[in-house]
């Protein structure tokens, strides 16, 4: 099996979210269960049809075991790869390989967290890094503030540029009834927000919410016989240079510079063919970094690229149309919600924020402190 012969060989046939925003009284596994049951139903399947399970959570040391037990599944293949928020983009690639190899016939990818109502904050769930600990960082925000500061120093990026990302996200969220943070937001609001870790203010930081998401994949030949509009896996790639932010080779360049081209080459698509970008926006700086590293503008030009509402509703480039992690949902790990929005857009189910034409979407996941980068390209049948 080569990368050339897995393009279009699997498809997402079921997709669902649950508990987005606040879900008081529900545990993480209960939220996962809700989204999984809904996704399986959306696919026109039954739970007993699921024989592949892919999961990563911040609540369970053994996520696939927990999901299998809770849902009463008996999978033939399972994988609990956890590379942070990008895990689920990687799971799509792994599930496609497992399906194509005949190791399973229906794969469930799932995630859930009750981070907000359980009292979780924006803190790292990672092990301490001995070379960072003496400086008392407040991770993950300290790491991202480092990257933002370096980008500003090297390329002249301004806080006003970061604010453009937050404003665009809120603009899209205001078109999404499921988004947790809706309502007016001005540039002055962003710039005057309480500073958390210079140069990142509260408005530059993602939400802390509850939420779960799940999707079901099958082989492409089976997808056409199921009730929902299939969304095909066209390409995927990952890259990882470091674990600790102080070991990052260059604070202004992420491994997305490798994962993106790998995914797009497998998919056989160019930048101008993509109708939608779903970029992991844990902080405003990440959107700028990923626009650069994925090749949508030159390195150092990201701040200028997002000015004047370019990625906001009505702008030239549709980015994070659900409102992103900044204004829609961010329950610890956000990567599966990128996929959920791409599926909604390609199926034509995105309501007021629906793009006129959406046949190709790129989803880019980020894990750790700009550490794990995973990119996938999804498409409609017209894109095959």
UniProtKB/TrEMBL annotation:
<dbReference type="InterPro" id="IPR055140">
    <property type="entry name" value="Thiolase_C_2"/>
</dbReference>
<dbReference type="InterPro" id="IPR002155">
    <property type="entry name" value="Thiolase"/>
</dbReference>
<dbReference type="Pfam" id="PF22691">
    <property type="entry name" value="Thiolase_C_1"/>
</dbReference>
<protein>
    <submittedName>
        <fullName>Acetyl-CoA acetyltransferase</fullName>
    </submittedName>
</protein>
<feature type="domain" description="Thiolase C-terminal">
    <location>
        <begin position="237"/>
        <end position="379"/>
    </location>
</feature>
<dbReference type="GO" id="GO:0003988">
    <property type="term" value="F:acetyl-CoA C-acyltransferase activity"/>
</dbReference>
<dbReference type="InterPro" id="IPR016039">
    <property type="entry name" value="Thiolase-like"/>
</dbReference>
């Amino acid at each position: 099996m080569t990368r050339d012969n897995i393009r279009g060989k699997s498809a997402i046939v079921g997709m669902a979210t649950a508990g987005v925003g606040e879900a008081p009284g529900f545990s993480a596994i209960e939220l996962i269960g809700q989204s999984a049951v809904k996704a399986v139903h959306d696919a026109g399947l039954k739970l007993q049809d699921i024989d592949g399970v892919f999961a990563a959570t911040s609540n369970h040391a053994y996520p696939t075991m927990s999901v299998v037990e809770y849902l009463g599944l008996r999978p033939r293949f399972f994988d609990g790869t956890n590379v942070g928020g990008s895990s689920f983009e990687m799971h799509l690639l792994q599930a496609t390989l497992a399906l194509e190899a005949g190791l399973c016939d229906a794969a469930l990818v799932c995630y859930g967290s009750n981070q907000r109502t359980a009292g979780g904050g924006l803190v790292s769930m990672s092990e301490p890094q001995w070379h960072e600990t003496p400086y008392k960082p407040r991770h993950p925000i300290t790491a991202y503030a480092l990257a933002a500061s370096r980008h500003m120093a090297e390329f002249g990026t301004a806080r006003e540029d970061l604010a453009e990302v937050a404003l665009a996200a809120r603009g899209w969220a205001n078109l999404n009834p499921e988004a947790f943070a809706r309502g007016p937001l001005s540039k002055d609001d962003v710039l005057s927000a309480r500073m958390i870790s210079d140069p990142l203010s509260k408005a530059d930081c993602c939400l802390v919410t509850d939420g779960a998401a799940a999707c079901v994949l099958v082989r492409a030949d089976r997808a056409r016989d199921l009730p929902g509009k299939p969304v095909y896996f066209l390409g995927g790639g990952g890259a990882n240079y470091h674990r600790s932010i102080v070991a990052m080779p260059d604070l202004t360049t992420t491994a997305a510079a490798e994962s993106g081209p790998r995914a797009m080459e497998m998919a056989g698509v160019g930048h101008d063919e993509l109708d939608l970008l779903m970029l992991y926006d844990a902080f405003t700086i990440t959107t700028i970094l990923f626009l650069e590293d994925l090749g949508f503008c030159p390195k150092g030009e990201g701040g200028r690229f997002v000015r004047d509402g370019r990625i906001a509703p009505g702008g030239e480039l549709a980015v994070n149309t659900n409102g992103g992690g900044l204004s829609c949902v961010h329950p610890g790990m956000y990567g599966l919600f990128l996929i959920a929005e791409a599926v909604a857009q390609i199926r034509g189910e995105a309501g007021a924020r629906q793009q006129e034409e959406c046949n190709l979407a790129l989803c880019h996941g980020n894990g750790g402190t700009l550490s794990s980068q995973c990119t996938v390209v999804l498409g409609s049948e017209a894109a095959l």
